Automatic annotation (TrEMBL):
Homology family: Belongs to the heat shock protein 70 family.
Gene3D superfamilies recorded: 3.30.420.40
Species of origin: Clostridium weizhouense
Classification lineage: Bacteria, Bacillati, Bacillota, Clostridia, Eubacteriales
Name this protein carries in UniProt: Chaperone protein DnaK
PANTHER family: CELL DIVISION PROTEIN FTSA-RELATED, ETHANOLAMINE UTILIZATION PROTEIN EUTJ
Domain of life of the native organism: Bacteria
Pfam family, one: PilM_2
Amino acid sequence: MSLFDKNEKLDVFYNLIKDEQFREYNNNIKAGVDLGTANIVFSVVDEFDNPVAGASYSASVVKDGLVVDYIGAIEIVRNLKSKVEKILGREIKYASTAIPPGTLNGNVKAIANVLEAADIEVVSIVDEPTAAAAVLGITDGAVVDVGGGTTGVSILKDGKVLYTADEPTGGTHMSLVIAGNYNISFEEAEKIKKDPNREKDNFLLVKPVIEKMAHIVKRHLEGYDVKKIYVVGGACSFSEFENVFKKVIGIETIKPSRPLLVTPLGIAVSCIK
């Protein structure tokens, strides 16, 4: 049985990554690899979907679901795998991974090839919002995964996915706005965006980008009876993010704890061999 509620799971997982430790378990484990635009995360859960261990690495080897640095991606995944195996004291042979909705077949194969080249058997590939829904236990509503390069939308009814979509807007666009405002490099803007001491000023700058995201999501929800929206992904970490969505779309919007880690943990939860 699950030991934690949704937010507790995410907090526990965050601390396991931060402290480079594992949680005791007495059963089989499942693993997931999230090849994100800004971060690559290796996740491990037990058979009851409770977090066991994990590791994360900031990288830019994937862009909009496309692997742009194949060798770099393999090396990072291999290193994360080795790190988690050292923490657990056991080998990890297989895992799941995820893709943005609508990813072309060739890109899906490339992402799978990265894991296989890192000596990981790929047992399943899910779309990112559906992975997020798995860890949040969502059966009805819309999951919006705001990543670095894209925003994915998944609409669920009675546990079934009715509709998925992906749009090319995300955290990268926020950083570009910040870079343009201060006339600085993209890399400098990324650091400023993640500075908690500058969140208020940053939010004022990127609010138009968030409003654009909300209008895009609103368009995708037309014709569906959606009562709640769940936002996940690192780019929705701003404290007022969900309030902008609620105001624009007019639907209750919920943001879980540690939104950056929802999809990575959900990928491991979805790993069924």
